[in-house]
Amino acid sequence: MAKKIYKFPLNLMGDTMLTLPIGYDVLSVGNQGGKLVAWVAVNEEHKKIPVKLVSCMTGHNTPDVKELSSEEICQFVGTVQIGPHVSHVFEIYDFAYEAQKEPRLKETTGI
Known about the structure:
Layout: E1 4-9, E2 14-21, E3 25-32, E4 35-42, E5 48-57, E6 72-82, E7 85-94, H1 95-101, H2 105-109
Antiparallel strand pairs: 1-4, 2-5, 3-4, 5-7, 6-7
């Protein structure tokens, strides 16, 4: 099944917890109607996993990688300006799911 793109609202500051299918792809973050949103490509048939997106404003602390568990990875997603505010978004996920994020050979080739 092909992936579909969905929009998810995010908190302007702090954590937003999402439940997304394995193999998801955070395509971008942006301002839509004065709200912070993320566009994510998903295959709805895949098992779902927890994903945390963290937003911080310019001049505030970024996610502290030292506080992450040994299984977690932090990746920058993008920066968005909403009015006078600038929000920077990071994706935090468990690397145990990382292998599952990438398409498996069997799924892409039929082998």
